[in-house]
Amino acid sequence: MPYPMALILEGLRRYPPAHFVLPHRVTEDAVLNNFLVPRKGIVNFFIAELGWDPKVWEDPIAFRLERRMCPAYGLAMLHLEYFVANLVLSFEWKSVDGDDIDLSEKQELTTVMKNPLQAHIYPRNLHSKFGRIVRIGSHPAIFVSDRSLNHQALIQNGAIFADRSSALTTGGIASSNQHTINTAAYGPLWGILRRSLTSEILNPSRAKSYSPARKWVLQVLRKQLTLKVGDAILVEDILIPLIMARKKVKEDKEVKYEGEHILSYVDTLLDLQLPEEKRKLDEGEIVSLCSEFLNAGTDTTSTALHWIMSNLVKYPHIQEKLFMEIRRVVGDGEEVKEDDLQKMPYLKAVILEGLRRHPPAHFLLPHRVTEDIVLNHILVPREGTVNFFTAEVGWDPKVWDDPVVFKPERFVSSDGGEEMFDITGSTEIKMIPFGAGRGICPAYGLAMLHLEYFVANLVWFFEWRPVDGDDIDLSDTEEFTIVMKNLLQACMYPRLR
Ligand code: HEM
C-alpha cells in the first residue's frame, strides 16, 4: 500500500511527535563541519527542523538517523499504517460543521495538537456494497446498506434475521425484561404481542375509531400534565392511572362511555395470555407496552411531519401544487376528510418523498440472526447482530435520479395518477423507512394515514411561508429520531377561500 505509507511518512515529516531526539553525548573528540565537538559534549539534534528543511528534505538520506535511531521505528510504522489504513477504510472522517481543522501544536511529553481533533465519522459501509464485520463485545455486529442484500436478509431469509439481541440491564428494565414487541425475541411472545397490536388496534376497519380514542387519551394526559407543571414527569405516573381507569371500565359494566365505546390499546392488553409463561401481563409489562406504543408512534410520526412541512415551506411550488390538488378534491369543504385522501395521488407522493429523503430512523432496530448464514460470501454467525441502514437505501443513485433532491413527482405516474409503490419492499427494496420483512413497523399504514391527514389539513387551512424569506435549513441531527438541526420557523397565513 504505497499511498498509506506515503501518508504516514508525510505525517511524521511534517508533525514529528518529538522535535528533538534525546541528547547524545560524544565518547571522544570529534570534528563536525569544522567544529570541534569535545569528548563528553552533549549534542542535541533538531529532528523537526531537519524534516522541514527544503534543501535537506530533497535528500532522502537525511531521514535515516544512524545508530541511535528509535529501535522500534519499524513497529511504529507498522502500527501507524495499520491503524490509519483501517480507520480510513472503515470510516469517512469529516470536519464538524465544515470547521477548519486547527493544526497548531503544543509541547507535552510529545508535540501534540493544541486543539484535539474533533470530527464526525461516517461508516464507509454506508457507501459500499456490504459492510465489514465489526466485532463488538462477544458477538460480531454487521452493517448492511445495500438494498439487494437488505432484501436477501429481511425478505428472503426473514425468519433467520428476525430476532432481537438480549437487552442490556437498563433496556431490560424499560422493556419489562423484553416483554415489548420491538425487544421480544423472535418467537411466541413476540408473535402474540405483535398480533394483538395489529389485529386489535391497527386493523384498517378500526382506523376510524382511533381519532376519538386518541383525543380522549390526549385530554387526560393534558390534564395530568397541567397538574404537574414544573414537576419532573415519570411515564409511569401518567400511565398507571390510565391503565387503572381502563381496568375499572372493563370490570364495572355499569360505567358507560359517553357516545360510542372506543377500544384502547390498554383494553386489548388486560386479558392477553402469554403463551409460554401461561399468565396475564403484569402492570409493569402493560406500562412498557403502552410506552412502546406511545414512543414508537409519536416521535417518528411528528419527525416525519416536521420534515415534510419544512420541504413544503422551502419549495412553495410543491406546496402550491399540493394545495391545488386538495382544492380539486375538497371544493368548498371546511377540512380534508379521511375519505378524501385516496383521491390525492400528489399528497401521497409528497409523503413518500418525505419518508425517502428524510426517514425518521436512519437504522432499523438491530436484528439478530438465529443461525449461521452466508450473505454476500460473508458468514454472519449465529447470534451476530445485523444493522440495516435505512437512509442510504433511499438515497441510492442507482435507483433514484438526483437522490438528494426533494421531488415528489418521482412517485406520480405519467398520467398524473398514483404510481403504485410497495413501501413494504416485498418484491424489491427501493427504500425502507418502516423496515421490511417480519419486523417491519406494524403501524406503517396508520402512520401513512396520519401523515396524509395532517399534511393535507395543514396545507388546506394555511399557506406556509418562510420567516422573512429565510432559507429553510435542512441539516439534521440525531436525537431519538433524526430530526431537524434547526427547527422549522414559518409564518402561516389562513387560506382565503
Ligand atoms: C412515520 C412514522 C413511523 C416510522 C417511520 C416508523 C419506523 C419504524 C421502524 C424503522 C421500525 C423498525 C423495523 C425493524 O427493526 O425491522 C419500527 C418498528 C416498530 N414500530 Fe414503527 N414507525 C412509525 C410509526 C409507528 C407507529 C404510529 C406505531 C404504533 C402505533 C409504531 C410501532 C412500532 C412497533 C411496535 C415496532 C416494533 C416492531 C417489531 O419489532 O416487530 N410505529 N417502526
How is this structure best summarized?
The chain is of the alpha+beta class and 497 residues long. Helices cover 40% and strands 14% of the residues.
**CATH homologous superfamily of the largest domain, by name?**
Cytochrome P450
State the helicity in percent bands.
Answer: 25-40%
Per DSSP, what share of the residues sits in E-state strands of 2 or more residues? 5-15%
Strand arrangement, largest sheet?
9-10-16-13
Content-based structural category: alpha+beta
Total number of beta strands: 20
Write down the Rg: 31 Å
Q: What is the tally of helical segments?
A: 15
Shape: elongated
Could you give a short account of the major beta sheet?
A: 4 strands, mixed
* C-alpha end-to-end distance: 69 Å
CATH architecture of the largest domain, by name, is Orthogonal Bundle
Which ions and ligands are bound to the chains?
protoporphyrin IX containing FE
Q: CATH class of the largest domain, please? A: Mainly Alpha
Mean pLDDT: 79
What does this structure look like?
It is a single chain. The protein is α+β, with helices and mostly antiparallel strands. It folds into two domains: 2-126, Cytochrome P450 (Cytochrome p450); 133-494, Cytochrome p450 (Orthogonal Bundle). It is built from 15 helices and 20 strands. The longest helix is centred in the middle third of the chain and has 32 residues, at 283-314. The chain is elongated. Residues 60-68, 126-138, 214-226 and 228-235 have low confidence and may be disordered. It binds protoporphyrin IX containing FE. Protoporphyrin IX containing FE is lined by residues 181-182, 194, 292-293, 296-297, 300-301, 304, 360-361, 364-365, 433-435, 439-443, 446-447. Residues 181-182, 194, 292-293, 296-297, 300-301, 304, 360-361, 364-365, 433-435, 439-443, 446-447 line the site of protoporphyrin IX containing FE. It comes from Theobroma cacao. One of its GO terms (cellular component) is membrane. It is a single-pass membrane protein. This is Cytochrome P450.
